[in-house]
Design goal:
Length: 326
């Protein structure tokens, strides 16, 4: 029987919707997208959505031959960034935009390769009815339709509807890790944090070297109050596997929200170590130092913020804090 293997790719990128005016400002973001070997990724799609601007943003931006991209006319505040490219896993991150600091440092975004599709298995036999396979497992047309519907719902950020369709598929594709990751993301988006953690834990346990799954699992565990478990996942990540300081800044903020300034300081410090040119890392580390009453360290970091970006909003806040500390 001849079998055709169709890989139904799980799309995790949220579609850009709503009014275009809410996100407009005078800020700017720019950078490069590279693969794990540091080679530029041409044609990567950058999707920007402003948290402050009602979750809206400009049209997707595509990287050039050198992996470069830039976006202008952005409102100040936090922006969520999705990066997708053919042959790579979707990268989700965030960044702060300042409408005062026009020369923000470039962002270097590294993409992890997507797992290769399952090989097509062909047998010499008489022509027969074509079947549908996902990861080497034969599925019915109804399950294939459920997967396609789920992908569409994910793009529209209809998390509950996506979860319902993915649940139909996972009843058949019980060991498909990519599907588990997608369903965990849908659960998280719909507010079912416990379900999301449980499913993503299975993905991580199957491949502890999956940095994307490890980072997301650590964040979910900490948000769920499982602080020690979250720290255990983070500590198991290989040295140098995280190159984006925003990963550790976000983890530090989660610990601040849990009133754990010691842990927050640890991860803000790691952000400084991997990107010493980013002023936000010093600013957040200074705030943690103030909570811990480490006044000398706080002053040094606040001065560093002013030195690196004297016209930024962080520098303005740093000057005010220094004046209060005198």
């Amino acid at each position: 029987m001849k079998k055709t293997s169709i890989l139904l790719v799980v799309c995790l990128v949220a579609a850009v919707t709503a009014s275009a005016q809410a996100w407009r400002g005078v800020g700017r973001l720019h950078g490069t997208v590279v693969d794990q070997d540091g080679k530029p990724v041409q044609g990567a799609k950058i999707i920007l959505k402003s948290v402050k601007g009602s979750d809206t943003g400009p049209a997707p931006i595509v990287t050039d031959a050198k992996g470069r991209w830039q976006a202008g006319g952005l409102i100040g505040g936090q922006w969520n960034i999705d990066v997708e490219a053919e042959g790579f896993l979707v990268r989700k991150m965030s960044a702060n935009v300042s409408e005062i600091e026009r020369l923000a440092p470039p962002m270097k975004i590294t993409l992890d390769p997507a797992p290769p599709p399952a090989p097509v298995q062909e047998q010499a036999a008489e022509p027969a009815q074509e079947t549908i396979q996902v990861g080497g497992v034969e599925i019915s047309p109804e399950i294939a339709q459920a997967l396609e519907a789920a992908n569409t719902f994910m793009k529209a950020e209809k998390w509950k509807e996506a979860a319902t369709e993915y649940e139909k598929a996972i009843a058949v594709l019980t060991e498909n890790q990519q599907l588990k990751f997608a369903l965990a993301r849908a659960y998280y988006g719909s507010g079912e944090l416990k379900k999301a953690v449980g499913l993503l834990q299975q993905v991580y346990d199957a491949d502890t070297g999956n940095i994307t799954a490890a980072t997301l699992l650590a964040n979910m565990l900490i948000e769920d109050g499982q602080l020690d478990a979250g720290k255990k996942v983070l500590s198991a990540m290989p040295e140098g596997s995280v190159t984006d300081p925003v990963v550790f800044i976000n983890v530090g903020i989660l610990f601040v929200n849990k009133n754990k300034p010691d842990d927050a300081y640890t991860y803000f410090d790691r952000a400084v170590q991997i990107a010493p040119e980013v002023p936000a890392s010093y600013y957040y580390r200074a705030l943690a130092s103030l909570q811990l009453k480490k006044m000398k360290e706080a002053r040094a970091d606040l001065q560093k913020v002013i030195e690196l970006a004297p016209d930024s909003s962080e520098a303005k806040d740093a000057k005010e804090l220094l004046a209060q500390m005198k």
